[in-house]
Structure formats: structure tokens, C-alpha cells
Design brief:
Layout (H helix, E strand, L loop, with lengths): L12 E3 L9 E4 L2 E5 L5 E5 L8 E6 L2 E6 L5 E4 L5 E4 L11 E3 L6 E3 L4 E2 L7 H12 L1 H4 L17
Antiparallel strand pairs: 1-2, 2-3, 3-4, 5-6, 7-8, 9-10, 10-11
């Protein structure tokens, strides 16, 4: 997130159109949060499929998001893996979610992070981390090494 504004891939709008029963979809443009036939959470082209419909179960100061088709709860573990699973009897931290009032970020899971379906590529993230940690090396400012010519030096 940048200055409190969700980045691309994090802004999901709660769409309650055509629903009198509390069901909604979570959409970003023409893409909706969906559960495929194997139970994997994904973004898919929006349709009227129950796999893209969710309902909220409020309690203990938190919300659970329940997929209408599977009756399973959206959850995320500490590593960031997002899945659907049987809803816990208590409001387990991995199944707690909140949606910004104006759409915004879907935030929650065990690590209380924003759901992001367009994360930075690993290479970009690793380069940025290396750039912060080893800026002089990446800028070509390393002039001398005691390693024999042709051998690899680990930094």
C-alpha cells in the first residue's frame, strides 16, 4: 500500500447488486474473487456464478467471508496462502477479514495483510531489497577482491 491508497491488485469493491439476501461479489473492474472447482481461490471474469458470491458472518469484532457455492470460509495463513476451508467454530484469525468502507483493501488472514492478486514479481522485490542492502555493489562501486580470478565471491 502506498500512502493508504490500495495498489493495483488490492482494490476490491463489495458489489451487492441483484441481491436481497446479503450476498455480494468482491470485484475489481470486470474481475471477481472466485473459487474454482478444485476449491482454489482465484480472480476470474465476473459472472453470476455462486462461486463468485460471498456472504459475511459477523461476530467477535470481525467478519468471516463465506463462499456461497462451497459454504467454506476464505482464509489466509501466515505465509500469505489464500484458500477456502471449513469455517472454524471460533473466529479464527486466519478467517477474519475486513473490507474498506469505500471498497479499498480486503484485509485479514493470520498475518492481517491485504489480499493482493497482482503482487510484485519476485525478481522485482528481490532486486529492491538487494538495492537497499547492497547499493554500492549494484552500482559498481566494489573495486577490489582477494578472490582468485574466475572464482565466485559470495557477498
Amino acid at each position: 500500500m502506498n500512502g493508504g491508497i490500495p495498489k493495483a491488485g488490492q482494490k476490491l469493491v463489495k458489489d451487492v447488486a441483484d441481491s436481497d439476501d446479503g450476498e455480494f461479489s468482491l470485484r475489481d473492474g470486470g474481475w471477481c474473487l472466485d473459487v474454482d472447482d478444485d476449491g482454489h481461490v482465484q480472480m476470474a471474469s465476473c459472472s453470476s456464478s455462486p462461486s463468485q458470491k460471498w456472504r459475511s458472518d459477523e461476530g467477535e469484532g470481525a467478519s468471516r467471508l463465506i463462499n456461497v457455492q462451497t459454504s467454506s470460509c476464505l482464509q489466509a495463513d501466515r505465509s500469505g496462502e489464500v484458500t477456502v476451508a471449513s469455517c472454524s467454530e471460533q473466529f479464527d484469525a486466519s478467517q477474519r477479514w475486513s473490507i474498506g468502507d469505500d471498497g479499498g483493501s480486503l484485509r485479514g488472514g493470520a498475518a492481517d495483510q491485504c489480499l493482493d492478486y497482482k503482487p510484485e514479481p519476485l525478481e522485482t522485490r528481490l532486486y529492491r531489497e538487494a538495492e537497499q542492502k547492497y547499493s554500492s555493489l549494484l552500482n559498481g562501486q566494489v573495486f577490489h577482491t582477494d578472490a582468485p580470478e574466475g572464482e565466485i565471491v559470495e557477498v
